Every structure is written in C-alpha cells, then in structure tokens.
Hints:
A: Peroxisomal Thiolase, Chain A, domain 1; two-stranded antiparallel sheet; B: alpha+beta; Peroxisomal Thiolase, Chain A, domain 1; 5-stranded antiparallel β-sheet; 14 helices; globular; Thiolase (chain A)
Amino acid sequence: MASNGIRDRVAIVGMGCTPFGEHWGRSIDDLLIDAVKECVGSVDGFEQDTVDAYWLGTMGSGTSGMTLSRPLKVDRPVTRVENYCATGSEAVRNAAYAVASGAYDCVMAVGGEKLKDSGFSGLVVPPASNDGTASEPSAPAMFSLLAPAYCQRYGVSEEQLKEVLTRIAWKNHKNGARNSRAQFRSEVSMEKIAASPIVAGQLGIFDCSGVADGAAAALIVRAEDAHRYTDKPMYIKGLSFVSGAAQGPVDPGYDFTSFGEVVMSAKDAYRQAGIEDPRRQLSLAEVHDCFTPTELVLMEDLGFSERGEGWKDVQAGTFDLDGELPVNPDGGLKSFGHPIGASGLRMLFECWSQFRGEAGDRQLERPELGLTHNLGGSPGACVSFVSVVGSELDV
Amino acid sequence: MNGIVSYGAYLPRHRLDRAAIRKTLGQGGGRGTRSVAGYDEDTTSMAVEAARRARWGASFAPASLQFATTAPAYADKTNANAIHAALGLAPEVFADDHASAVRSAIGALRAAAADGGLAVLADVRLGRPGSADEAGGGDGAAAFLFGSGDDVVAEIVGRASVTAEFLDRWRTPGQTASSTWEERFGLGEYLPLAQQAAQRALAAAGVERPDHVVVASSHGRVARTVAKSFGDAATDRLEPVAGNLGAAHLGVQLVDALDRAQPGETVLALSVADGADAFLLRVTDAIARRPSGQGVVDQLALAADVDYATFLTWRGGLDREPPRRPDPVRYEAPPAARAAAWKFGFVGSRCQQCERMHVPPQRVCAGCGATDLMTAESLADVEGTIATYAVDRLAYSLSPPTVTVAVDFDGGGRFSCELTDGDPSAVAVGGRVEMTFRRMYSAQGVHNYFWKARPVVAAPTADEPALAAATAKEL
C-alpha cells in the first residue's frame, strides 16, 4: 500500500470538545454549536468567518453539510463524511488533505453524534436496502469472538483472559475518572467489572463502551502558518485509512485474533511519520476500545506488543497512565461512550491537551508524539484509521 | 405403474409435555407430548425441510409443486413459490397452494399424482390455551414425489373419495383457533363415509386386508375408531408423541408406514376430513432404495423439551417484553429478487480459476481477483464445522439468546449465521452443523426466509419395540 503522506505540512491550531454523556437537554445542533464555538474560542482573536471550509463527520445525526451550516449559519463548503466508527477521524483526514493540497488556508473538521435520542441500548446502524440474509448479531457478540480465539491461539486460559480484559476496563475507567469531559467519571473496581452481567460471549456490561452524545472540532491550517494562531500547534505526522475487503467472516483462513486493516493502516501511518518503534517513540495512544478484547488485540496490531504478548503487557501495567506507553489516558471509549462522529476528534483532543500541558490530573511528562486510532465494523470486516500527531516539527 | 417415487418427513425437534399445560392453567393438557415448530419455523419452512428429505429417488425433477396446509404463512401470495425457490426447481415447474382445510392435503396429493409432481404437506396446529386442539395438535411436514415406471416405490392401486357437507370443524380466516360441533355428531356422520371410501379403494385393487393402514382425521375420535376397525395394522404411532399434525398428519404417518413396509405389502392411507379419501398403495422392490436414519422414528427420537411459556411465546400467545433494540425491518423486494438463488437456495459461487468458494456469491474472487469467473454452487446440503461462535444476549430474537456461528463448510467456504435448534451452553468450536431453512423473523407482514445452521445430531438407534410399547401405553 503506497501513500505519500503529509508529514508536518498541516497543523491543528485550535480545538473544542463537549462533555460526552446523556445530553437529554441538548440537540445535535446544540452539540455542534458548542464544539465549534469552543474551538473558535481556543484561538485568541480568531474569527469564525476566517474558516474557508468545513468537514462534518456524523454517522446518523444528519445528512448533508447543512447539518452543520444550518445551526451555525455558515455559508461555506461543508462536506459531510461517514465511515462507520472512524467517521470523526475521516472528517479530520479529508480536511487536512484539503489544506495540504493548497485548496484552502484554514478549515475546520467537526464531528458530532446524538445517539441517546433513539431510546435503544447499544449502537443502532440503520440498514441499507437488503435481501434479509445478513445475520445481525450485536456489536458485543461480533467483538466477543476475539476473546476465545486469542485464548486458543496463544494458550491463554479463559480465566487469565478475563483478568486481562477486566484490567483494561479498570484502567480506562481509572483514567476517565480524572477527566471532566468523560461520560463516566468514577473508578470501577475489578471485582465489579468482573462480575458484571454477561452481554455476549464472555463480555460483561463493563467490557463494553457506553452510548453517549457529544461533539468535537479541530481548526486546521498549513504548518507554516500555525504559529500565527497558537504557540503550541499540533502537527500531523501521518494519516492512514484502510477499508478492508471484509472477507474475515467468509474466509476460513481468518482466525479472529487480529484486525488486518489495523495492521496495514498502522504500518502506513508509521512510515509516513517516520516511526520505527511505536512503543518507545509514542508518548501516548488513543485507541478504539469499543470492547475490552478490541483494545487487547490492538496492542499487538498497532505494534505496541509482540504477537501473543499483549495480555502480559496489559497485566504488567505497560499501558497504564504511569506505564511505558499510556493507552487511552483520557479514559477511552470506555469512559466517554462512543458518539460515532465525535470519537476520533475526541481522541485528538486528548493529544492536543497533553501536548499543551492542559490534561490536569492525567498530564503526562513532556509528551511529544501521540497516536489516535479508530476502527469501524467487526473483526475481519472493518475500516481502520490511524493518525500520528506531534508537538514539534521534525527538522 | 404410477405412484410414489420418493418421500420424506420433517418433525421439528421441540416437544411440549401436554401435562405442562394443565400444570399452568389448571385445565387442558393430557398425556404424552406434542411436536412444536421452532420460533423460526412455519409451514413453508417445514415444507422445505420435508421436501429436502424426499430427494433420494433416482432423480428429483418434479413436474409440479403442490403445497397443502391449514396455516399458510401468506394469503394472496403463493407460499409454494418459496419452497420452489429453496429446492432450486426450474422456473417451468408449476407451484401452487392447496390451503385452509385439512382436506387440502388430499388436493395436493391428487394433483401431484396426476402429473408426476411433488406434494408437500405441512401444518402448524394451534388452539386456545387449555383447549383440546392446543394439546392434541402438532407441527410437522411430509413430502411425496410422484412418478411412473421402475422408480415407483409405492404404486397407487386404488383410490376413492366421498364428499359430504356438514358442520364439524371450522375456522374463519384470521382466527387462530378452530371450533368444533359436538363430538358425537361428527362421529356419526364420518364413520360411514370412511368405511365407504376405504372399501371402494380396497375393492378397486381386490385387496381384502391391507398390511398397513394409516388414518388421519380432523376429528380425533373418528380417527381412533376407524383405526381400531383395522386392528394392529392401523396403530397411530405419531399422535401420542407428536399430536395430530392437521394437513400433514396423513403424510407423516404414511412416510412412517412406507419406512416399515416390505415389497409386495399394501398400505391404505385414509383421510377423514370433510368427507373421506382413500389411497391404496402397493410397495414395490424399489423401496430398497429408501434411506435410513431420517425417518419419522429417527426424528421423534431427537426430542428437546420446550416449556409451556416458551411455547406460548413462540406461537404469539404471550406478548413478551422485547430487548431495547430496534424492531427488525422487512427486507426489500428488489434485492431479495436479485438474490433469490442465494436467499432461498443458499447458492454461493466458486471461482473457476482458483476454486475458492464464496458465500454469499461474489463477482470478484477474494482469492485470485478474477472477475465474473464463477460457477454457482449451493451449500444447502453441505455440512460444516463451527470455527468460532458467540452467544448474544442483546440481539433481537423471539427466543434469546441467539447464537452466531462462523461455519467452515466441507469443501470450502465460510459463512457466519445464526445457529438454531441448539442448546447455547452446548455449542463448541469444532462442532458439526448442517443447514436448515428457516423463517428468520417477520416484519411489517413480510416473512424473512433464509438458512441457519443447526447441530448435526446423530439419531439415537431407534428402539422400535420400545416406541411401539410406549405408543400402545399412551393409547
């Protein structure tokens, strides 16, 4: 897979992120307005009118660019994008490319989702017209397939794996407890996590991310212009996206212990960003922990752990807030829930906050490189996004 | 020589203990069990399963498809067409429904016998909670392919019908429960009709005492009384454990009788419903071709208990709290029509270049990238192995939890689908499954038929004497 990348050509110079949660009193319009206005306000003296174009990521909270232009009364190009659970990241990727191409000087990527209005448990994706033959297991059921497959391939017992998955949920809740924007802001004991009612396969309720409303926005300009907006810009080092051939569920060779799409997109993003040893070079990683086994498998697919060793690294605390490579320091999907269009931008917001020293109780020491990752779909059939961002320009 | 060329029966795995009804309601029930169609089965899906078990003849090329039931899944739309599609029959093959009355089964048999067609008889029998029909009914299906020449395993040597109009059992369209007149009135009306039809059919072939007799009636006591008059030749082995299968009862019993009959023996099939209809069959040497292990006794031996509350839920008698998930939506007609071979026949595609098997069918090969170099291939009759599975407590189902399995088919191809007829706690990687045609769900009045996997269960060696003894005791 070939890509040229736009390393250090584009920078994020302002951001906004609403609290995520059950916003019964606020519409998608309200959330988008709040995120955009916070983003505009994050740059001293910045006028929203300066924004040349917008990209809006939302899976189901509206169609067309008018979902954004109508509430905000803007009169600009607004491109609405959708790419499953990577929708928010997809808005950023396309907005960044538009700036890098020279088409625009200043653009904004916005993502938002109003999930709680549906009244349903879990995520609901409206089906395209179909012949009624696709099986429709729930998302936890599809991702639960990772757990027994991992056990079988690496000789890990079901009990051992349960401890590992429990620790992942415990760690993310612990981080989220230190984040005022998170949906769930309290620590949860391992006993409580381990004893939560089973939803699908071996996954209990605490192995699943929540359902929340939220929105976030990023202001994107050329890197050379960045310091006109802020002293602490965040530079885009690599952006990669892979839409898989989706053959896992119908390929007898697929064993449910890896996301091939993630491996490919990570490799591509690392090459663009010049990263050779992600575990050592990255200061933090925000990954798509839709379910606890997803995060475990991602540690290996993203190259943070050797194959079959991820579970040991989790247990050793490697990915804790004070570990070697903090993963989901903001609390992850686990603490934030997953308003589809907003999640990717929320992950970038954590990198942004960390680089600027604004992460409060979660602040890491001198972070320089961060990774964000989304996947959408199910094991063997998904889209994957990986970005690498940094606080400094590489010389 | 004209007659039956091959045949098959289908009985759902589920059994309701009739005593459970009385235990819950304080009324109704009885001894023995009744067969219960799964929550994902109806007369159309069971008809497909019965027809699939009738394909052991020298060839399977029915000239027509004649479907009979008292419980059609659709009105105004021919239910036989879904069966036709599931069997992959040629478009030239005529398909039609004979619906609404128990006697419709005779219409299907006569029509199929006339043109070398396939008669498929299926029923789901309902009754009000606590009623005799609820406890005494049963669900199941049978199929008979007719033809001529050396392939005939049971030649039709006599046939007679008597028609009479009187009010014994009735139901208006839209109702689920039937009404009946006083039992003794029907008994008095029916007995002479049954005798007349039987005698005429026997006389036509010059047979005095048939070796086997199967009697089915919409009037339970009539069936027992008529059967008794033939002595041991006419034991209903089905009713005590499966119930009266309505339009399928004569057929399923006939399958069982043909499975036991020896060359040269005669079988009298007598239906007493809105008149009386008799077929006299003489079994030929070709019966040696009949397969073993898939007969009525074999399927009866695979019983799985279902409790009364579950039975009521499955049949729509208990409107239970659904999960907080969207209701299923109906499929769209154009995509289903485009994919009819896949949806109804489980036809995938195999790459002509690298032989990779694709389910659902693909135009571009996932193995070698070849485009439009595929050969259609059905995996409906191919067994497979469970590669992985998940028990799902969140997905919508009338019978939660659902089990999703990834199946690796023998000879290639993987498909992820729902597992049915299995105990969720007994599913295991490496387990063997076969495909079965089911009604996935109904939404906005549209029934969504497709295929599910179900565990391959080796039929316990059917203990014939023990079953006969149990049957005799129940009677």
